[in-house]
What we know:
This protein is 44% helix and 13% strand. It has 243 residues and is α+β, with helices and mostly antiparallel strands.
Amino acid sequence: MKKKEADIYAITHLSRNAKDRAIYAVYFAFLCTSLLLGLVLMVIWPAFISSIDSTLIRFVLPFLFIAAGILVWIVGVYATTKMYNRHLQKAVYKIPNAHERIDILPLDSISVMDSWYKEGAIVVRKKEDRALDLFYNWLMDTKLISGGRVTIYEISLEQFHQKYPFINRHKGFLKENFLVLPIKDTSMPGKKKEVSDLMTYPNGYSYIRYVGWFADFVNGRHYVPDYGICYDYKDEIEDFMET
């Protein structure tokens, strides 16, 4: 039997607002209640032993209570987690087959990347339907769009390296053709920091996958333990910008 693959685009947690946090608190409380009730069932069996004369029942009773406790754990945790996960998916994936609302156009001129670098743009590294479903619903959730169709641009690696020849092809963070949505085409043009913050932890809208900031890929931005944020190509870029 083929093992079911994990859904990397499944939403596992939401903390966008007080309502999300309240729902998570209820979910956590149900988990704790299930675990506590199961534990109680496992340890209260001695209280019933003294009133039972049957040796067989006295022998079997502990196993029954322990089995009941484990069953409460399994059923309680499984059912509660399944309900919470179902809520998370419904809260984000409000529009089914959202990828059908995205128009992908090939990039005609590499010169437009200058404005993307300066004004801000979002990179989508995966073109599969599930990735685009999540991306579109995320755009709706963050109110970067109000609905309708969205146009994003497909850039080949050849175009990217033609525009930025200093980027090391082997050490680059982009390994295949990717998609770009300029923030000037969203509801928040010019608000680079605000849009960038929506994509980063611990912001409550950072549940997207395989999405990044265009300038970060151009700059070669990455994190080095014990040192901090580094930019591989900072000295190669005229009028360098962090975001």
